[in-house]
Design brief:
The chain has ten helices and two strands; from the N terminus they run H-H-H-H-H-H-H-E-E-H-H-H. By secondary structure, it is mostly helical.
């Protein structure tokens, strides 16, 4: 049979395609089925976290950082447990990435703190010697776009049945509710409430003053998002 295929390149190519396609379907279909079911403990993003994710995308952070830990020892030793499909159930778009100028950020919330991110964004090389990451000083000046984040929440809640304002089971047997406001004003209030918990661990007095005055700088939002990656 093999010798016959060698003499008929079209059928040889077709056979290779069928075998590879079958193997790919066996691997992919279960993953898609799992992706439709969030893992226990996986929650949708809060208004502030979603706004921070938008800041992350706007500044092309995903161009240098991936959010996908492969199931290899070298990966899991450095970054933690490999990524599971269901963990991305509320990511639109996903930010898996493939290029790693910087480290993977899938579980960065487990090993980096708020004040670490604060200093790192302000001057990366001062925190990580030899870093080629630029300084993101404008994040300390620009105000977070909460309105757009709330609009996205409304969209995913309506069209994808994202479980906002509902009890979500956690791994320890408890439950958690991610609140979504009934209006833009309430969304701003919820985001500001969360921002206050973030700035409590920050050192920059200007940021603290801004939040106290009811404003949310982008640095606060992106830190909220980074802290949620666990």
């Amino acid at each position: 049979m093999f010798h016959w295929l060698e003499k008929h390149p079209f059928f040889f190519a077709l056979s290779v395609f069928v075998v590879i396609a079958y193997a790919g379907l066996v691997e992919i279909i279960p993953s898609f089925a799992q992706a439709a079911r969030p893992l226990v403990g996986t929650t949708p993003y809060s208004t502030l976290e979603l706004a921070g994710r938008q800041v992350y995308i706007k500044n092309s952070c995903n161009a240098c950082h991936s959010q996908l830990i492969r199931p290899f020892k070298s990966e899991t030793d450095r970054y933690g447990h490999y990524s599971m499909s269901g963990e991305y159930a509320y990511d639109r778009p996903f930010l898996w990435g493939s290029k790693r100028t910087g480290p993977d950020l899938m579980r960065v919330g487990n090993y980096r703190t708020t004040d670490w991110h604060e200093n790192h964004m302000k001057d990366p090389a001062a925190v990580v010697p030899g870093s080629i990451m630029p300084k993101y000083t404008w994040l300390y000046e620009n105000e977070t776009d909460i309105d757009t984040a709330y609009a996205e929440q409304l969209t995913v809640e309506q069209f994808f049945s994202t479980p906002y304002n509902k009890a979500i089971p956690m791994k320890d047997g408890s439950s958690k509710i991610i609140k979504m406001g009934d209006s833009i004003a309430e969304a701003h209030a919820l985001a500001l409430e969360e921002a206050k918990t973030i700035v409590a661990d920050m050192k920059d007095q200007n940021i603290k003053d801004a939040v106290a005055a009811g404003k949310i700088p982008e640095i606060v939002a992106i830190i909220a998002y980074m802290n949620s990656l666990k």
